[in-house]
Design goal:
The complex is a heterodimer of chains A (333) and B (331). Chain A has 333 residues and is α/β, with parallel strands linked by helices. Chain A has 14 helices and twelve strands. Chain A has a single domain (5-332), classed as Luciferase-like domain (TIM Barrel, Alpha-Beta Barrel), CATH 3.20.20.30. The chains are: A alpha/beta (333), B alpha/beta (331).
Amino acid sequence: MRPRRLGIRFEGFETLDEARALAREAEAAGASSVWMTQHLGGRDSPTLATIIAAGTARLRVVPSNISPFIAHPTPTAMMLATLAEFAPGRVAASIGIGNPLDLSQSGALVADAEDAVCDFVGALDALFERKPVTATGRTFRLDGAKLSIVSGVAIPIYVTALEPKMARRAGATTAALQLSAGFSPAFAASCVQAFDGGAAQAGIDASARPRACFAYFGTDERASFEGVRRKLAYLFRNRLMAENIRLSGLPIDQAAIIDCVARRDLDAATRLVPDEAVEAFAVTGSLHTCSATVQCFFEAGIDELLINVGSTAAERAAAFALIAQVNGAAVDQ
Amino acid sequence: MSLGIYFDGFSPTREMLEVAQAAEEAGADSLWFAQHMGFREALVWATAAVSVTRTIRLVPTAISPYLWPPLPVAMSMATLAEYAGPRTAIAVSVGNLLNLSESGVEAVKPVRVMREYVRDLRALWAGEPVQSDGELHQLRGAKMMFERGVHCPIYVASTGPQVLTLAGEIGDGILLSGALTLASCRSMLGHVDAGIAAAGREAATVRKAGFILLSIAEDGDVARQEMLRKLAFLFRSRGHAANIASADLGIDHAAIMDCFARHDPDAALAFLPEAAATTFAVSGTPRECRDLLAGYLQAGMDEPIVEVTGTPEQRRLALALIAEVSGQAGG
């Protein structure tokens, strides 16, 4: 069985000093990794990963959601190989479609998205062979490009999935799986099953490939609980969340939420997210409750859960206590 | 006079970090990280170097608009600036045409693309949503969400007259490639000056930097032979034709390119006279290197940038030369 671990993820709004401090605290608490999503216009995740690697000794650093619609495989392979030489054995990355609105602001149009992601993963695989690569993908062409950085350390590549369709496609590549935040354990399980199904259909044994999942985290304090509710309201504006919501069985009016967010009335959208949803789609509550929810994700087939560590000192202390408890228990096993 | 150091990305990261630290202690004032396709990534290396240095300037170099879109580059440099403080700059260039083609990219309309790239980077760092209908990149409201107002000097690197003229017109600095004769350096800086004059700028506001190949050893013959091997590799490119002609050494450039086309680099060495090692580069004993370096300093460069490579003893000699030129010797 793959080890089951808690790591952290940055939400993209942390200052650099906060991110560095959080990473050090997370490492001290026993976190497995820190994931940083490439939000266009935010801090650059490969650069941030290099900074975090320099300030920590063991923590795995994972630039995530690198989009084939704005990144090219050759520079991406160079970046990852260089980072891996700087922090040997501590680097992974995830490839994802990216945010279509943000991409459009940089002149990139998202089309054939799942194909583009899979093509990109294939190109990275080929470049990591350190031989000249000739390949054509939806967003690039390679005509003899070669990665010349010799390294014996493999760099795990994940595919970011927001729903089972992408997870299924990822299963047919060599990539591991990384699910977005705001999923219920049941929906995470359906994505993991889709991933395994895609692999099986392609005749691939994917059982050894990691499956990670982002999750919102909150404490049992009211303000923290409400903060998670607000994040879920914003997330549920995305129509791809329909199946996630349906599987929960909760009476959530997603169409009304979408309308509210379209009117830029996030307060109204937040009121449409019931308490039960906060408990179903996030890791919230007391240490005991959070620990139980984490176990639900593990039982759903997730082996690394990445939580945000909150914005207040109390939330961070609770997050690190949860990490210490879960990962300490993992070591004990 | 201070010297900069450049890294070609061919050596392991550990060696780069050792040299970066030693270079700062020796009095070097800048570290330039070349973006050679397939080798160490310049933006990651510049960031990694922060962990072993305190004040030295950091310059990811020859970032090409054809493979690095403006917003991610602006994000990376702003993140680096937040980490390192006000000691970052960037050099941009069209890039090596052969290497770009291997990644499926054709460098169309380079002068226009370079002009737009510099403009877009500056606009993004200013912090407002950017609208730009460029030849290569179209920005439709892209903007930075942090570190607005970053001032990151932009050097424009080239050896071609049109882009050099553009560099003088719009760059905070210009950067010349290595393996140039003094005559080539003067000619290229002339194009830069023309751009500066055309834009009505003060010449002193545009920094003139240049890579200078350096091979140093107590045995000057060893240093020169090593340099010839480097030069042969660089001269496989058709782009060096005018530079080679400027040396008037009777070098058969076509024969050198033929050797590399046949994957026979050793054979190419036969077409390079020993004088090439001191005509296109700084090579020899420490004393010889010091004298040759003075020639480049007098050719009009504000920021000469040398490499520190070879055996540990050769690296020690190179660092001693840097310390001497930087006034740090014995300090």
